[in-house]
Amino acid sequence: MTALEYTSLIQSVALSLRPVAMNLTRDADDAKDLVQETLLKALSNREKFKSGTNIKAWLYTIMRNTFINNYNKITKRTSSIDTSEYLQYLNINQNYTAQNKGAASFVMNDINKAIANLSEEHRKPFMMYYIGYKYHEIADQLNLPIGTVKNRIHIARKELKLMLEVYR
After folding, report:
1. Angle between helix 17-25 and 28-44 (nearest 10)
2. Domain RNA polymerase sigma factor 70 region 4 type: where (predicted)?
């Protein structure tokens, strides 16, 4: 089959590709792009077409495979990493180029200083809660109402948040 015969054969079937492309993509512009890409692939792979076979079925196969490949590319691009091995890298602060023990010790020193700067009435319930005591246990040990304990822990958190604003 000559190139001219092959091209005219493809042109005769090209109009029937559009509804199928529209069914796959559900968007007019994407359907036009899919048909165009299908025809380009068919024309550039003329030597792979065997005379006597169904040209329409061959073009539909090219179109379907092209659509699937494009869909897979898009979903790979938009999917997030969900393996636990890489989860530690998702929320890395972009300002730091490397994390090391020196930076961590500076952070811990700042946290300890901020906790030390809390008033005694806020620091004590906060530290007890941090260690693992429940609200009612803290209230019993400090002889305070549970609402007061919750309020003091809340205030301590707010003050620490303000004091450690640099680490946001």
Report:
1. 130
2. 110-160
Distances (CA, A) of 115 to 103, 108, 111, 112, 133: 19, 10, 6, 5, 17
Q: Give the DSSP letter of residue 79.
A: P
For domain 99-167, say whether CATH 2.40.110.10 is its number. no
Fold classification of 3-78 (topology level): Rna Polymerase Sigma Factor; Chain: A (1.10.1740)
41 close to 62: Cβ distance less than 8 angstroms: yes
0.70 surpassed by pTM? no
Say if residues 24 and 31 touch (Cβ distance below 8 Å): yes
Q: Out of 87-91, 112-116, 139-143, which region has the weakest mean confidence (pLDDT)? A: 87-91
As given in the structure block, the two tokens for residue 49 are: 């077409």
